[in-house]
Structure formats: C-alpha cells, structure tokens
C-alpha cells in the first residue's frame, strides 16, 4: 500500500465519501513515505518470495515530482520487483512513463469510466476532455507498459446511447491490451447513491452489489439484462470492426442463442487480442 484514499472526489467513488467524512480532520488522503514503502516491500519480498507487486495507490502519478523521483531512484536499486499501477489520464506524461519504465513498471490501469464529456463532468465530477484521455493513451502506446482501460456502465440516468459514447471513446484509444467494463453500484456515502435514491432507482436500505456482475438499480430505460448483455459484449464492441456490430448485438441477448454467439465471439477475441 503506497497511498490511502485519493486526492480526487469522483461522485460514484468511495473516496468521495471518505474525503467528506474526514474534511474537518485534515482530509483522508495520505501518502506513505518512500523510505517506509521501500523497507516494507523489501521485507515482504524476502519473507514471501514476491515476484510481482500491485502497488496500491488510487492515482499513483498524482503526487509530487520529488516523491516520484525518490521512488524511481530507490525502488530499482532496493526492491527490483516488476509492478503494476493505477493512474488518472491527466497525470500521464512522457517523462513519467520513461521514469516508470526505468523502475520496472510492467503495466498500468487507467480510469476512462465514461465517454461523454458532459455526463462525466456533471454526474461523475471527472473534469477532463476526451482529447486529454486520448492523448494520455497515445503516450502510453509509445511506452513498453501493458495498458488496461477501466470503464463503468449503468450509472444513474445513463442511457444505451451514452454507453455507446464510452465504447466509441475506447475505440479511439491506441494500444489497450485490457478493455475492462464494470457495472455501476451505489455505495453508501457517495453522492451518486443519493441521486439514485432521489430518482427512485434503489431503496434507501439497499446494499450495493458486486461491480463485476451485478447492477441493483431499477431504471426503466435500461434493464438489468440489457446492462449485463452490454457489459459482456463491451470489449467486443471496442475491438471488433463495426461491420461485426450486428452480430455482437445478438450476443448481448441472455438466451441460449445469444450465449452461443457470445461464446464464439469471445473465443475469437481471446485468440486475437489476449495472446
Ligand atoms: S480518481 Fe479514481 S480513486 Fe480517485 S476518486 Fe476518482 S474514481 Fe475514486
């Protein structure tokens, strides 16, 4: 664990609630000092024979230049483990990528979340342009890092058309090995949960589900089945040419016929994009 919390407050994220809760106590976000991090990682590497590290920091690159430089000097000399990080698109620069490559960073997960700028700004409080997101992925595509793009669908009020805006944005991102798509869940303490309650999409005492496979919102314009179908076909829509979209649309259907088409397309996807 490198940091705890996040300096940002996206309205769907638990960090929104934590930042609000700790507002009068100096805030929730804190960064572990690099010497302590290095010491802990060396201990764990020796004790457990670690071969790979997932460095837990919600937005690894959103920190001071001095801290990154200290990390990049000490980590390769004292820990020397390949590692994976998470980052916000606007924190990605060519200089930081060179530094990460030199440290042994193997991969990076970047939050795209949603493809419509207005929706992203007003409903999610993520204030960055699509051009900025595309530019970040262009920088990553020129690096040696494996790249994963994280997306969420099924936000309150989100429509099928808006989900396709997210698909379209992902189609513009070069060099993405992992196209990830989660289902929105309304966590307590987040502003978006309040909006979901206000709109009657959930009951006040409803518990959030598993973002990998469940949506608990009741939205008349977007059923659970349609969302699950879109979630499973999301990477197919992103990676396959539009001439295949009619076929992919059939694979959304949660029926034996739809499942069969989905399995065939998924196998093709694995062969083509996951080797
Ligand atoms: S940047 Fe990521 S971790 Fe931070 S508040 Fe937004 S969604 Fe949460």
What does this entry look like structurally?
The protein has 275 residues and is of the alpha/beta class. It has 2 domains: 3-239, pyruvate-formate lyase- activating enzyme (Alpha-Beta Horseshoe), CATH 3.80.30; 240-275, no CATH class. Helices cover 47% and strands 12% of the residues. The chain has 11 helices and 7 strands. It has helices at 14-21, 34-48, 65-78, 94-103, 117-124, 130-141, 160-171, 191-198, 224-239, 245-251, 256-273; strands at 3-4, 30-31, 53-54, 83-87, 105-113, 146-153, 178-183. It has a 5-stranded parallel sheet with strand order 3-4-5-6-7. Strand 4, helix 4 and strand 5 form a beta-alpha-beta unit. Helix 7 (160-171) runs parallel beside helix 9 and helix 9 (224-239) packs parallel to helix 11. The longest helix is centred in the last third of the chain and has 18 residues, at 256-273. It is globular. The mean pLDDT is 96. Bound molecules: iron/sulfur cluster. Residues 6, 8-10, 13, 15, 58-59, 88, 111 line the site of iron/sulfur cluster.
Shape: globular
User: What is the C-level CATH assignment of the largest domain?
Assistant: Alpha Beta
Task: Give a count of the beta strands, DSSP E runs of length 2 or more.
Answer: 7
CATH topology of the largest domain: pyruvate-formate lyase- activating enzyme
CATH homology-level superfamily of the largest domain: tm_1862 like domain
């Amino acid at each position: 664990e490198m940091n705890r919390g996040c300096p940002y407050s996206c309205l769907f994220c638990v960090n929104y609630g934590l930042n609000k809760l700790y507002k009068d106590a100096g805030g929730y976000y804190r960064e572990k000092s690099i010497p302590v991090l290095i010491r802990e990682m060396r201990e764990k590497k020796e004790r457990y024979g670690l071969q790979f590290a997932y460095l837990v920091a919600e937005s690894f690159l959103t920190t001071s230049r001095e801290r990154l430089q200290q990390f990049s000097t000490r980590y390769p000399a004292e820990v020397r483990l390949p590692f994976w990080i998470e980052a916000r698109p606007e924190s990605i620069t060519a200089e930081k990528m060179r530094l990460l490559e030199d440290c042994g960073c193997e991969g990076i997960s970047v939050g795209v979340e949603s493809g419509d700028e207005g929706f992203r700004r007003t409903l999610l409080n993520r204030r960055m342009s699509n051009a900025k997101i595309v530019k970040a992925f262009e920088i990553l595509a020129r690096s040696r890092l494996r790249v994963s793009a994280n997306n969420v669908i099924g936000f309150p009020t989100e429509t099928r058309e808006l989900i396709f805006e997210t698909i379209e944005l992902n189609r513009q991102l070069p060099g993405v090995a992992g196209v990830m798509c989660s289902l929105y869940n309304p966590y307590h303490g987040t502003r978006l949960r309040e909006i979901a309650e206000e709109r009657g999409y959930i009951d006040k005492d409803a518990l959030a589900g598993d973002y990998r496979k469940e949506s608990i919102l009741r939205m008349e314009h977007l059923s659970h089945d349609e969302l699950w179908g879109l979630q499973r076909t999301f990477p197919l829509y992103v990676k396959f040419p539009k001439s295949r979209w009619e076929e992919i649309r059939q694979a959304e259907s949660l029926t034996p016929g739809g499942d069969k088409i989905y399995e065939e397309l998924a196998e093709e996807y694995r062969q083509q994009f996951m080797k």
